[in-house]
Each structure stands twice: as structure tokens, then as C-alpha cells.
User: Which sequence fits this backbone?
């Protein structure tokens, strides 16, 4: 069997694939967090819970209404996005002029409430969610076996991340968002309804978390604590990429996934801490993150 | 010009930033086609007056009528859509946007905005600097031209210009002055806040002197020569 640095090739590529899958989820989630922080100035601790909600909505749609994966892929983000819009209007919109800490505390409390509610009804053990039939099986690439569903997750995540990046960096709406990050008062004075834009941005960003949730449902089990396990790593990724940096969150999310995969292969003991070591190094060398700019 | 219908009427305007009461009952009016200046020392309340007209202060009371319609209870975006545009003191060029994105950012709020070619005629430097670089890479004068140029596209006919000459070289100040005069010829109404009295004196049809959040006096352009001593005392020029 072919070996690379003393490691069997299928094992190495298998770990890299797992890293890429994790990286895809990291990218989707950190992208949403970066958008929310950039535009609303809120550290959204509820992001992991809303990701979990996306997976649960898909599971509930399937088990109670018979609505399968493909319609769920549209409906789950929309439902989670709508929940986000209610959260923003009812609660977050009152905190924009206050210190970051208030937003963090509120969203942390929301995360506990959302997760606690799902735990109360469904317990902490995972619920199975099968991938759609068309994505069963896989491809034998010679050096490794690539499950179809995992390939789909990578492609779908990258497409959504790229689409979001293009939306923000290359469209007029994105220009409004970027301008509103710097001077929301001035953008309002140009005739743009900034509060509405912020509400929709939060809805969109948590909709992305919902999208990541349904993508993750067939890969991991659907569990109320699935977001908890991920959110701390995702926050570290946002910090490494640069708070509020869209491109930084996407590139860093995928990169950290791959680095975790490599670490799991060569030095498994460090696989769950490597992201925090990288964060510490980046914060020492580049306090604004790899792609971040100093905030005025 | 001041005999026509007032496009902007401000009556007994009070404004607060937090607990600080900044404006204590400002009164003035601007008629269609006029250039009117608010003059006063630093901290007199001139910038706050413009921000209060745009709805950008924490709390305001009194009356602000645009074309006869009350706007005191409206949000800034709704006020802007009534045909008023604001160019802030510090220019408000967005660092994360390119020069072109900055120029094209404000949406059209009414018919009748200037086409880009006409804006480039007013500010030829802008056309030459339409690169992919950030708007904040421009010189101070070019940033000021960009800040004024971008609000001309919106269709707003009333322009609020806050200290457009601040920190600029004399040659650029002259260019901005020519542009303001040209805008008046094109039918724009301009409310100008200035510390540079000599700049404002040449351009404005009427002047209001603001002190401690009040309008304490007003002058027509023709009065300035004979009342220069009073003005010197009020403005410390």
C-alpha cells in the first residue's frame, strides 16, 4: 500500500476528507458569524443552537410532515432565518448601542434556552437522519473512497460560501452592507433603511447556520448538543480569519478543517487543540486576524 | 430669491445628544435656489443642526418642514427620500468601498439626479481616480469632491454641506467654491455650514449666525460689508 510520510495514503486522504467536511461546516458557520459581527456588531453565541435547530427542523419536517431532504434544504434555512428575524427584532435590535458583552450574554442565554427546549423534548441522544437516496454510495477514486453525500456537502458549502462572498463584495446590496458596517448613520441619511437591512442580514446569516444544520444532519446524528461541540471552534476560526472578515472566515474555516485532519493523522492528541494554538499564534502576530482590518 | 416658497423651514428646533441639550430653539428658513450658510464658532451647534434636520441626533423637538411637510417624527431614511441629501463634515468616505462604489452608493431618491458625466464635469479629478482603490486612498480634496459628487446623483434638490472646505488647500477651496456656485446655477438649494467665513461670504445669499444652539442674527449678502465689525466680533474672524 502506498504511504505518504509513513502514513497509508487511504488513511491520510480519508482524514483530509473528514477535515474538508468539517471545514465546510466551519466555513458556513463562521461566515454567518462574521457577517453578523461585521454588520450588527453582535457576537452571536446562539449560532450553534440555530445550526442545531436547522438539523432538527429537517428531522421534524421528515418525521412529522413527511417532507424529505431536498424541500427541507430550502425550508429549514427559511424557518431558522424567520426565527432569527424574530430574535433580531424583538431582542437584538435594542442592544446595538451597548457594549458587545450585552449581545454576547443575550445570545448565550438564547443558546441555552433553545438547546434546553430541544433537550427537554428529544433528550441528548442523537436522532438518525438518512441522506437522500440519490446521494447514497460513493466513488472509488483509487487512493480513497469518496462517499457521494460528503462530496455533495463540500460542493454545496463552497457554492453557498462563494455566493455569499459575491453578494457582499460584488453587488450593490453588498456595498450597502459594507458601508453600513462603517457608518450606519450616514447610510441611513442616504435613504437606505438600515434597521431593515440589519434584520434581514441576521435572518440570512442564521439561515446559513440552518443550512449547515440540515447539511450536517445525515453526517452527524441530529442532537440538541451538536451546536455546542462546534461553536467554540467556529469562534476561534472567526478570530483567526479576522472578526467580521467574510473571506477570512471562509478560507480559515476550510483551512482549519484540513489542518485538523492532518493533525489527526500525524499527532492525534493535538487534533482538538490545534485550532486554539493557531488562534493564540495569530493573535500574537496579527491581532486583527489573518484577513481582518483594525476597527475604528 | 428669498421671496419664493421656503424649501426648508426650521422652527424652535431643540436637539440632544444623550443628556446634553445642544440646540436651544433654532429658527431659520431656506428658499428654493438659495445658498444659505450657518456661521458660528466651534461648538455653536451648526453641525448638530444639520444632523438634526437629517434625523441623526438622539432626540429632537420643534418643527422641520421640507416643502411644507413636517419631518420631525421621521426616520433618517424617510427624510432623505423627501429629497434632501447630506454631506458630512468628515466626508464619510467608506474605506471598504472603492472610489466608484462610493460614488454610486446613494440610491436615487427622486427623479432629476445629475448624470455621472455632469458630475465628472463638476469634479474632473473624480473621473481620473475611478480605480479599484479604496475611496479613502484619495487626497482630502478629492474625497470632498467624491462626498459632494455622490449626493448629486440622488435627485435630492436640497443639499446640506457641512464644512466642505475644512483642511483643504486654498486652490481646492476655490474649486469647491466654483462647484457650489455651479450647483446653484443648476437649481440646487444649498444649506452650508462653514467656519471659513470668507468662503461662505462669497457664496451664500444669506447667513445665519449660530451661538450656543440659537440663531442670534442673520445677514443678507449685501449687508456684510457694512456690518463686518459685528461679524468679526461674533465669529472671531
Assistant:
Amino acid at each position: 500500500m502506498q504511504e505518504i510520510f509513513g502514513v497509508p495514503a487511504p488513511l491520510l486522504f480519508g482524514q483530509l476528507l473528514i477535515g474538508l467536511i468539517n471545514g465546510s461546516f466551519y466555513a458556513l458557520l463562521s461566515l454567518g458569524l462574521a457577517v453578523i459581527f461585521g454588520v450588527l456588531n453582535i457576537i452571536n453565541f446562539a449560532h450553534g443552537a440555530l445550526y442545531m435547530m436547522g438539523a432538527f427542523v429537517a428531522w421534524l419536517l421528515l418525521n412529522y410532515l413527511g417532507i424529505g431532504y431536498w424541500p427541507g434544504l430550502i425550508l429549514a434555512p427559511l424557518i431558522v432565518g424567520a426565527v432569527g428575524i424574530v430574535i433580531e427584532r424583538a431582542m437584538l435590535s435594542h442592544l446595538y448601542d451597548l457594549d458587545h458583552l450585552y449581545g454576547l450574554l443575550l445570545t448565550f442565554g438564547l443558546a441555552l434556552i433553545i438547546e434546553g427546549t430541544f433537550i427537554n423534548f428529544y433528550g441528548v441522544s442523537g436522532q438518525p437522519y438518512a441522506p437522500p437516496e440519490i446521494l447514497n454510495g460513493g466513488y472509488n477514486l483509487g487512493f480513497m473512497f469518496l462517499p457521494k453525500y460528503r462530496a455533495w456537502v463540500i460542493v454545496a458549502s463552497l457554492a453557498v460560501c462563494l455566493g455569499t462572498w459575491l453578494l457582499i463584495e460584488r453587488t450593490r446590496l453588498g456595498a450597502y452592507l459594507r458601508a453600513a458596517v462603517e457608518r450606519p448613520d450616514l447610510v441611513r441619511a442616504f435613504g437606505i433603511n438600515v434597521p431593515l437591512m440589519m434584520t434581514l442580514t441576521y435572518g440570512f446569516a442564521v439561515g446559513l447556520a440552518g443550512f449547515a444544520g440540515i447539511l450536517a444532519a445525515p453526517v452527524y446524528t441530529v442532537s440538541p448538543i451538536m451546536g455546542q461541540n462546534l461553536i467554540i471552534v467556529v469562534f476561534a476560526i472567526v478570530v483567526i480569519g479576522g472578526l467580521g472578515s467574510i473571506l477570512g472566515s471562509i478560507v480559515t474555516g476550510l483551512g482549519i478543517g484540513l489542518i485538523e485532519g492532518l493533525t489527526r493523522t500525524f499527532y492525534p492528541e493535538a487534533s482538538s487543540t490545534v485550532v486554539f494554538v493557531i488562534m493564540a499564534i495569530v493573535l500574537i502576530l496579527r491581532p486583527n486576524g489573518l484577513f481582518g482590518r483594525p476597527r475604528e | 430669491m428669498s421671496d419664493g416658497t421656503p424649501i426648508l423651514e426650521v422652527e424652535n428646533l431643540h436637539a440632544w445628544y444623550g443628556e446634553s441639550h445642544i440646540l436651544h430653539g433654532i429658527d431659520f428658513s431656506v428658499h428654493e435656489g438659495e445658498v444659505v450658510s450657518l456661521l458660528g464658532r466651534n461648538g455653536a451647534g451648526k453641525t448638530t443642526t444639520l444632523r438634526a434636520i437629517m434625523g441623526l441626533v438622539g432626540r429632537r423637538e420643534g418643527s422641520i418642514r421640507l416643502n411644507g411637510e413636517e419631518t420631525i417624527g421621521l426616520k433618517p431614511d424617510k427624510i432623505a427620500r423627501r429629497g434632501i441629501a447630506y454631506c458630512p463634515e468628515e466626508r464619510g468616505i467608506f474605506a471598504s468601498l472603492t472610489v466608484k462604489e462610493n460614488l454610486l452608493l446613494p440610491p436615487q431618491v427622486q427623479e432629476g439626479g445629475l448624470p455621472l458625466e455632469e458630475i465628472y464635469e463638476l469634479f474632473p479629478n473624480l473621473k481620473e481616480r475611478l480605480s479599484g482603490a479604496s475611496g479613502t486612498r484619495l487626497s482630502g480634496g478629492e474625497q470632498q469632491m467624491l462626498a459632494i459628487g455622490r449626493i448629486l446623483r440622488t435627485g435630492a434638490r436640497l443639499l446640506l454641506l457641512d464644512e466642505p472646505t475644512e483642511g483643504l488647500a486654498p486652490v481646492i477651496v476655490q474649486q469647491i467654491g466654483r462647484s457650489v456656485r455651479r450647483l446653484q446655477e443648476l437649481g440646487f438649494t444649498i444649506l452650508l455650514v462653514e467656519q471659513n467665513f470668507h468662503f461662505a461670504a462669497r457664496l451664500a445669499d444669506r447667513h445665519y449666525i449660530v451661538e450656543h444652539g440659537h440663531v442670534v442674527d442673520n445677514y443678507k449678502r449685501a449687508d456684510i460689508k457694512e456690518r463686518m465689525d459685528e461679524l468679526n466680533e461674533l465669529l472671531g474672524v
